[in-house]
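USER: Fancy drafting a protein?

ASSISTANT:
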Amino acid sequence: MAPSLLHVPRALRGRYGACNDDSPVQVGLRGRVDLEPCDDVRCGVRGFELVGDPFPPGSTVEVAVVTGDFGAPNIVVYNASNRGGRGPITELDPDAVRNALMISCYGGFLVAQAAAKQMVPAGGGTILLTGASASVKGYPNSSSFAMGKFGLRGLAQSLARELQPKNIHVAHFVIDGGIALLDGADKRAASRGPDGTLDPDAIAQSYLQIHRQHRSAWTWEIELRPWVEKF
């Protein structure tokens, strides 16, 4: 079985069930502008930290080189996003908005393209793209974030229809709520208490479940939220 490539944020490192999987998992994490090993010998996880903020066109090559070293990936997850500022459209910084679109949407295209170029010849794979409640609902004073997330959802929907006949499972995740980060960096999320945020382990488990779905019953979109979250 080909190794897995997971492109995930630092909060989800080592949380994709590698200990119970039949194949080693390559974990790609987004952060600084370089590649760093993030092996977890306890679970047999081999991985790297894939970075770039925002993703320039050259990142496509970087992703291809890394996955080529590991073998064709059977799963790629894109989580990166950027709000680009919050406020009335008359006050938003155009450069910040462009940067947000590059990260939230265009970066997802680059990673999905690099993954598809290897998955199509390999005969299958999974591409999972992470959205937010802003993917399906544009909130006031949040036009920059809505544009990026709407675009990423459109990409996922289009790719699902294009790549599913090629045995490539593409799914979009609507993460509706704050995430309980491991380092507690998100103070607003932490203030909601244990029931008010999404647990990273639970999120990762849901991603892995979608990846392992039988192809006779694939999901293209799923919403995840705390049980106390209003929607």
Observations:
- The chain has one domain: 4-224.
- Residues 94-122 form the longest helix (29 residues).
